[in-house]
Amino acid sequence: MGSSQSECDTVAGRQCMASCFFLMQQYDEAASYLGSIASYFDGNPLFHWNYGMALVAAAEVVVMVLVWARVRSCGLVF
């Protein structure tokens, strides 16, 4: 899943790799992949919610607070 070099360097490929790492419980890798494409999803609160979940699981709480602030600014309340 997403191991091809040509697929890894696309937004969809990076999302795929992040999902794979999340399912394998390698949260730091998942957060890294999601962070690399976050600018493409600036107005998407669901993306930032998932990115925040990966950050929490990777114990990146300071960055997670900033990411979830974007979720709240889009109107999603948790």
Order of helices and strands: HHHHH
Largest sheet: none
Overall structural class, as computed from helix and strand content, comes to mainly alpha
Number of helices: 5
Shape summary: globular
Number of strands: 0
Estimated helix fraction: 55-70%
% residues in beta strands: under 5%
The poorly predicted ranges are none
Distance between the termini: 32 Å
What value does the average pLDDT take?
A: 84
* Radius of gyration, taken over Cα atoms and rounded to an integer in Å: 12 Å
Summarize this structure as a short list of keywords or feature phrases.
78 residues, mainly alpha, 5 helices
Quick structural gist:
Helix 2 runs antiparallel to helix 3, helix 3 runs antiparallel to helix 4 and helix 4 runs antiparallel to helix 5.
Question: Can you lay out the helices and strands and say which pair or pack?
Answer:
Layout: H1 5-8, H2 11-23, H3 27-37, H4 45-57, H5 61-73
Helix pairs in contact: 2-3, 3-4, 4-5
Question: Could you explain how this protein is built, in words?
Answer:
With 78 residues, the protein is mainly alpha-helical. It has five helices and no strands. Helix 2 runs antiparallel to helix 3, helix 3 (27-37) packs antiparallel against helix 4 (45-57) and helix 4 (45-57) runs antiparallel to helix 5 (61-73). 24% of the residues are buried.
